[in-house]
Structures are given as structure tokens and as C-alpha cells.
Amino acid sequence: MSDVKTSKYLSYVLRHQPESIGLDLDAHGWADVTELLARSVSSGLTRAALDRVVANNDKKRFEYSPDGLKIRASQGHSVNIDLSYEARTPPEILFHGTVDRFLDAIRNSGLMKMKRHHVHLSADMDTAQSVGDRRGKHVVLRVRAAEMDADGHSFFLSTNGVWLTEHVPPEYIEFNLAV
Q1: Model pTM score
Q2: DSSP secondary structure string, the chain?
Q3: 72-88 as b/e: b if 16+ CB within 10 A
Q4: Which of the chain's termini has less CB crowding within 10 Å, N or C?
Q5: What is the largest CA-CA distance in the chain?
Q6: CA separation for the pair 50, 55 (Å, rounded)
Q7: Other beta carbons less than 10 A from residue 35's beta carbon
Q8: 49 Cβ contact partners less than 8 Å away, ≥ 6 residues apart
Q9: How far is CA 24 from CA 14, 40, 60, 164, in A?
Q10: How far, in Å, CA of 138 to CA of 126, rounded?
Q11: Contacts of 21 (CB under 8 A, 6+ apart)
Q12: Which residues lie below 8 Å from residue 20, measured CB to CB, with a gap of 6+?
């Protein structure tokens, strides 16, 4: 299995459908590595491939526990887990990459978490642009995060540097950054 396929497989299993292979995640999203490998035999997942993807994934989507016995996705879950991230003060501006076909809905309702636990925001425009590039004509939106924080909205920083929040109301979004 290529590293790209391994990453997609792990995203599916660790973020969205652990039950598809009979895997149990604990309350914080951790899965036992030995169990994951045993339940993934038919997919061709190996410990070497797992190690490569955890170490080399450009977005650091996955992490091992300090003892290396457990693994989890850093964010983006649709399953009910608590990543235990503490609220943090965000930078003044964060960015969100999306595609132009969603702009009307975003103007009306803001950025919604949809089936995930949080809205994902980037500290830099390039990362946000690469997110938008995946699904069509991309647009990068500026989010006035410090203003949101001052108004009582909570922000969390995942271990891979993605900023997370429950919802970004439209009044905090600048829509004039089409790339």
C-alpha cells in the first residue's frame, strides 16, 4: 500500500469509521497500534508503513502516544471523541480554505463544523490555499480570530498546528481574498 493510500485508510478508520474494521477508539481518539495492525491485515497495512506515514505526513495528521503503543488522528473526526485540547489564544488572523461554490452558504451562516467536531483554520494563507485546492476553484477566507476570541469564542490548537473552533459567524469573515 502506498503512503498516500495508507494515509487515506488511516483517516477513514481513525477519524470516521473505526467500526468498519472492528476497532475501538478510547474517549480521546486513541487506538491500540497492535490492534489496528491486526484488524488491518487484509488492507496490507504494516508497522513500517504506519511509522512512515506518522513521521512523514506533510500535515502531521496522525500521532503516536509518547510510549508508541497508541495512535490517533490529530483532528478532523466525525466520531464522538474528546481530543482534550485546551483553549488557546489565537493569532489576530487565521485563514480558511474552501471552494467558491460554498461562498453563498458561508456568507449566510458562517463557517460550520458540519459532521466534524470543529471548523479547521490555518495560521498561514498557503496552507489554507492547499486545502481549498483539493475540491475545485479555491478561495481563501480571512477570519478575525482575535476579535472572535475577545467576544468569547473558544479556539484550540491541534498537535499538528491546525486551529479549531466550533463555528465562525459570518461577521468575522473577510470574503475578499479569492486566490
Answers
A1: 0.70
A2: --HHHHHHHHHIIIII-GGGGT----TTS-EEHHHHHHHTGGGT--HHHHHHHHHH-TT--EEE-TTSSEEEESS---S-----PPB-PPPS-EEEEEEGGGHHHHHHH-EE-TTSSSEEEBSSHHHHHHHHHTTSSEEEEEE-HHHHHHTT---EE-TTS-EEESEE-GGGEE-----
A3: bbbbbbebebebebeee
A4: C
A5: 50
A6: 9
A7: 14
A8: 1, 3, 6
A9: 9, 13, 22, 24
A10: 12
A11: 13, 39, 40
A12: 12, 13
User: What count of residues does the chain have?
Assistant: 179
> Cβ of 103: how many Cβ atoms within 10 Å?
15
Per-residue pLDDT of the chain (179 residues; tens, 9 = 90+): 788 899 999 999 999 999 999 999 998 899 999 999 999 988 889 999 999 999 997 778 899 999 999 999 987 777 887 777 889 999 999 999 888 889 999 999 999 988 777 899 999 988 777 765 566 678 899 999 999 999 999 999 988 888 999 999 999 999 875 44
Sorted by where each starts, the structural domains of the chain and their CATH numbers stand as 3-73 (1.10.10.970), 94-174 (3.20.170.30)
Q: Which three cell numbers stand for residue 72?
A: 490517533
